[in-house]
Structures are given as structure tokens and as C-alpha cells.
Design a protein that fits this description.
- By secondary structure, the chain is of the alpha/beta class.
- The chain contains eight helices and ten strands.
- A six-stranded mixed beta sheet has the order 6-7-8-3-9-10, with helices on both faces.
- Strand 1 and strand 2 form a beta hairpin.
- The radius of gyration is 19 Å and the shape is globular.
Length: about 260
């Protein structure tokens, strides 16, 4: 049975300004969704609210996952529940290797699920890490580098995809994953996402441009304008946006509003 992340009537603000004005969206495991829209329409705000960023206040609505309202949970609790977030600008941590970071994260999730769990041992972790890196076609020495320190934009994104592969969440939110990537890096990151896509993982890709969707094929495409999802459809919707721009969607919304009046 598919799990679902359900966003119902979500309103949220930052510094007293309302950004999200009633967002409704359901992402199930086994599905890939793309959320598109111009800059400043609330896409990244939605990502931050989903992961519990303290600067954003939820004034109405629910975010339901595994029978819990995520609005009531801290960011680490959401992560341990099975939600993963790939940030637009990943932070670097000097002195902490990629491997040690991943092992700590795995043990944190296991401990949360079972307080008696003693955690993943070094031999087992090395086996799992090698398996995931081979699947993603990543050089093994990557695991020994300090997390994101001196990484190129593409390397930071690949590190996040490795986290996604290793932690095995049920829902992944990829916020502007294509931001700042050249075409080669975009292809590598997309191949990683495609390798992980499957019936046990639901993916929400948040993007401004259609180009990442040339490599990752979504089942559903949504358009956000002015803090709401105003249009949903299949992959062809992204192609129409590429041809006509977001002004086309605004015109459709204005026509619908005029018909109501």
C-alpha cells in the first residue's frame, strides 16, 4: 500500500507576510511530482515549511504523513519519520566526513524507531555505503571528504543524492536541485534520482525551469502562482510552459475568474 504526504489547505507566512495561501497537494510513494512556477511564488517556502524551518509560521492547514500532522513535529522528527529534503544551498561541515555524517544519520533514524537498536556497525555500514555508491557510479574516495567542503555545485548535489540513497526515506523533496548545475552535472544528478525512483519512494521536484524534466520524467506537474497551486497535469504541462511561459497560466486563471463573474 502506497504511503502519502498530504498537504491540505496550507497557509504559511514569513516575517508577517503570507506566502502560502491555501496549498493542496498529495504525493504518494511510487510517484514523481514536479512543482513549477516563477521566482517568488512560494515554491521554496513550501519546501521549507514541509521540513519545519523555524522562520516560517503555519497559520492554517495540515501536512499529514504516516498518521501524523507534521506541523506539530520538529525538523529532526520529520526526518526520522521518513521525509528527506535536498536543499537549494547545502551547508558545508568542516571536519565531518561524508561517511561519518551518513552513519550518524542512519543510527539516529534507527534509534528513533527502536530505542534498543545498537546502530549500524562499521562493517555493515561500509558494505551499504559501497553498494549505494556503486549504484550511483560515485568514486569511493568521495566518502572520505569533508561534507560539502570545497565541493563544486554538482558534487554537493551528488552528496545529497547519496544521502537520499543511504537513508532510504519514503518521501524526498528536491528543492531547486538543478540550480547552478552545468549540463553534465545535471545529467549525473538526474541519473542518480532515476536510479532511486521506484515504488517505495515518492519524489517532489521543485524547479523554476523545465530542463531537469528532460532527464527526470514526472508523473504529475503542478504550477504554483501567488502562493497557490493553480494548475495540475501530466508531463505535457511542463512542455506547454516551456513553449508559452507562465504568462499563459496567468491568462487561463484570469479567464476562469472572468467566467465566474
Amino acid at each position: 500500500m502506497a504511503l502519502a504526504l498530504e498537504i491540505r489547505g496550507l497557509h504559511a507566512s514569513v516575517e508577517g507576510k503570507e506566502i502560502l495561501k491555501g496549498v493542496d497537494l498529495t504525493v504518494k510513494t511510487g510517484e514523481i511530482h514536479a512543482l513549477m512556477g516563477p521566482n517568488g511564488t512560494g515554491k521554496s517556502t513550501l519546501a521549507n515549511v514541509l521540513m519545519g524551518h523555524p522562520s516560517y509560521q503555519v497559520s492554517a492547514g495540515e501536512i499529514l504523513f504516516k498518521g501524523k500532522n507534521l506541523v506539530e513535529l520538529a525538523p529532526d522528527e520529520r526526518s526520522r519519520l521518513g521525509l528527506f529534503m535536498a536543499f537549494q544551498y547545502p551547508v558545508s561541515i568542516s571536519g565531518l566526513s561524508v561517511a561519518n555524517f551518513l552513519r550518524t544519520a542512519i543510527n539516529s533514524r534507527r534509534k528513533a524507531a527502536d530505542p534498543e537498536d545498537k546502530g549500524i556497525g562499521v562493517p555493515e555500514f561500509r558494505r551499504v555505503l559501497k553498494e549505494k555508491m556503486d549504484m550511483l557510479k560515485m568514486p569511493h574516495e568521495f566518502a572520505g571528504r569533508y561534507l560539502n567542503e570545497g565541493f563544486s555545485g554538482g558534487e554537493k548535489k551528488r552528496a545529497e543524492i547519496l544521502q537520499l540513497a543511504t537513508l532510504e526515506p519514503e518521501i524526498a523533496i528536491l528543492d531547486e536541485t538543478d540550480s547552478g548545475l552545468d549540463i553534465d552535472a545535471l545529467r549525473v544528478v538526474s541519473e542518480g534520482v532515476n536510479a532511486l525512483a521506484g515504488p517505495k519512494l515518492g519524489i517532489l521536484i521543485i524547479t523554476h525551469y523545465q530542463r531537469i524534466l528532460n532527464y527526470i520524467k514526472p508523473h504529475f506537474v503542478h504550477v504554483m502562482l501567488d502562493g497557490r497551486i493553480v494548475e495540475s497535469g501530466g508531463p505535457d504541462l511542463a512542455e506547454h510552459l516551456e513553449e508559452r511561459g507562465y504568462g499563459w497560466v496567468r491568462e487561463m486563471q484570469e479567464e476562469k475568474a472572468a467566467e465566474v463573474l
